[in-house]
Amino acid sequence: MIVAISAVIVTLIVTALLSFGRFTRTETWRATVTPLASIIGSGFLICGPLLAKEFGSAAAIAMALLLLLAYAVGAVIRFNIVHIENIGPQLNLHAPMAWFMRAAQTMLAIAYAVSVAYYLKLLAEFAMKPFNVPDNLHILTSNLLVTLIIIALTALTFSGSIKKIEHAAHATVSLKLGIIAGLLAGLAVWWITHLAIQTDTPPMKLSWSGLPLLLGLLITVQGFETSRYMGASYDQVTRVKTMRYAQWLSSAIYMAFLLCLTPFLERASHAEGVAGILDIMTFVAPLLGIFVLVGAVSSQLSAAIADSIGSGGLLIEVSRGKLGISLAFITSSALAIAVVWLTDPFQVVALSSRAFAIFYAMQAILALWVSLKTNVGSLAARIGFGSLAAICVVAAVMGAPAE
């Protein structure tokens, strides 16, 4: 009972602070919310069971390595926010670097369209669970629900600003972070009140065979690149700073969640995805099972909103400002709706994972290219850019699709 009470109290307090706190009305927090929302999708729910199964008691070490890799890729994107954006407008449309930049943007546009459709398809599946929708109407109902959500999000940009859609992201992130805080509090209280109970932990497993899964999990901590395409609303300094904040906060959440799962690693190693973490939380306290379901829905919605913002910003940059905010969002939404109706996002999510990895590799190559061209950055930075490009290519080729 104390576990459930603690979780509810912490959830209410954190959600209220993030919804009504004075700091949440600042430009810094608004710019932090979008990448943060995109990073924390369903990944925080599935990483624990997957890493426990593959790495045993070394799951926390594996998570730390994954977060370090993501932060290094984020550093590349932050470098490009300043240097690529400054050099890009000066390039001839037919310059090799300009062609390479457009190729990278095309790859990201594909990844965004698939990821938005996928996030919302999962949301629809969760939302439809309480209702006994006939099998012959299931796909049609799901696709209609997703389409309506995408249209509603697009309508929020008709004012010519992304502020309204950012408010939607803010609301979902506040709820999501509140629920995550409640889950962490519940796990922590369970741990403290059961110190005398001996818990089994799986043996440590560290081998090269786990590398494909770890690289595939890069998609679950992806999302920081949305800051790169918010230039219509925030300056470079703000985007660089707030992307860093988003990565710090999300990394702390991922590590805290995994560490709090330590007493349940043996159980987690036999669990399967979101359903597995649902079983674990229900074991800790039945109420936490509800928290997981609400957290999963809010996570999918906030991640979809964040990627929609990133996609709209991407199209504005690709069109060199010829597309306004509303038209850019209409275009990206039409692409996402096409993916919803013409494909099964559960099957093509592997394409999204690989597309993001290839996009990151191309961003690292661009960073190295610009560094050599403009003589900006140290030798160590250039070695880092080249190394990250190689790692991301390996992730695209070898990575097991985590989603």
Explain what the structure shows.
By secondary structure, the chain is an all-alpha fold. It has a single domain, classed as Amino acid/polyamine transporter I (Up-down Bundle). Helix content is 76%, strand content 0%. Helix 3 (43-55) crosses helix 11 (273-284). The mean pLDDT is 80.
Helix and strand arrangement:
Layout: H1 2-20, H2 27-39, H3 43-55, H4 59-87, H5 96-128, H6 135-155, H7 163-193, H8 211-216, H9 236-260, H10 265-268, H11 273-284, H12 286-318, H13 325-342, H14 345-374, H15 379-398
Helix pairs in contact: 1-7, 2-7, 2-9, 2-12, 3-4, 3-11, 4-9, 4-14, 5-6, 5-12, 5-13, 5-14, 6-13, 7-9, 7-12, 11-12, 12-13, 14-15
The computed structural class is mainly alpha
What percentage of residues falls in helices of 4 or more residues?
A: over 70%
User: Radius of gyration in whole Å, from Cα?
Assistant: 21 Å
The tally of domains stands at 1
The averaged pLDDT comes out at 80
- The CATH class label is Mainly Alpha
Low-confidence stretches: none
Q: Which sheet architecture does the biggest sheet show? A: none
* Overall 3D form: globular
Provide the succession of SSEs: HHHHHHHHHHHHHHH
Distance between the termini: 33 Å
Instruction: Please identify which CATH superfamily we are dealing with.
Output: Amino acid/polyamine transporter I
Treating each run of at least 4 consecutive H or I residues as one helix, how many helices?
15
CATH topology: Amino acid/polyamine transporter I
Strand content: under 5%
CATH architecture: Up-down Bundle
Number of strands: 0
